[in-house]
Amino acid sequence: DTAVSQTPKYLVTQMGNDKSIKCEQNLGHDTMYWYKQDSKKFLKIMFSYNNKELIINETVPNRFSPKSPDKAHLNLHINSLELGDSAVYFCASSTSGGANTGELFFGEGSRLTVL
Amino acid sequence: QKEVEQDPGPLSVPEGAIVSLNCTYSNSAFQYFMWYRQYSRKGPELLMYTYSSGNKEDGRFTAQVDKSSKYISLFIRDSQPSDSATYLCAMKRAAGNKLTFGGGTRVLVKP
Asked: Could you read off the pLDDT of B56-105 as tens digits, one per residue?
């Protein structure tokens, strides 16, 4: 009964490949996010969706494309992977009120290594 | 210069000691301030949030915000080995959903 679940947890791939990470939340939240955590532990927002509508799209290469089929799911597809894409990608969710106060629920992360 | 600065540590304390963590920031528009705890290979989990300046206490945890100095703190009393983790501060403006995180401070509580 994991609240925010991401798959896969680990991903090792070659440069130039395309990969996807999936996220699902069973908390009934209406807002979902993708954050990227680099090797120095800095978490940086990439995208946010509210009720399937994109509301935050940070300066991210257009090789990264999020997709929210419904408000419980948010996927991340990455084309033409580069070495610099190696990081831990976290999915998170919140209520609309929680989004306002910063109360996010994070998944356990998907560790991407690009060789 | 990052918008939110946090000493990466590690901060090593004996069990039972008070852990003192802090962040400084440069953007005076930040209104909400959070502390997240992240265990190794896990996602961050929210410990506390505060709005604007002031103190907030929850069990062994106390968060303080001094907006005039652009400085926030988290104190952990009676620290336990299970408190060993990375502590991330985060903050946001009044409007919008974007959180800006510090880089985290790694804390080690030794038995």
From this structure: 999 999 999 999 999 999 999 999 999 999 999 999 998 888 999 999 99
Encode pLDDT of A82-111 as tens digits. Answer: 999 999 999 999 998 888 788 999 999 999
Could you identify the residue written with the tokens 């356990």? A108
Q: Does B9 contact A at CB distance below 8 Å? A: no
Locate the chain B residue with the closest alpha carbon to A94: B97
Burial (CB count <10 Å: 0-12, 13-18, 19+), residue B5 = middle
Q: Do A101 and B42 touch (CB under 8 A)?
A: no
The whole-angstrom separation of Cα A20 and Cα A67 is: 10
User: What is the residue whose two structure tokens read 């996602």?
Assistant: B43
Closest CB to B99: pick one of A40, A45, A105: A45
* Nearby residues of B106 by Cβ (< 8 Å), 6 or more positions away: B8, B9, B10, B11, B85, B86
Residues forming a β-bridge with A53:
A50
Q: Does B88 touch chain A (CB under 8 A)?
A: yes
Q: Contact A41/B86 with Cβ under 8 angstroms? A: yes
> Can you tell me the distance from the alpha carbon of A100 to that of A25, in angstroms, rounded to the nearest whole number?
19
DSSP-derived pairing of the beta strands A110-114 and A87-94: antiparallel
Q: Which residue, chain included where needed, has tokens 């999020």?
A: A66
B46 → chain A, closest CA residue = A103
Contacts of residue A33, Cβ cutoff 8 Å, sequence gap at least 6: A45, A46, A47, A48, A49, A56, A74, A91, A92, A93, A94, A104, B97
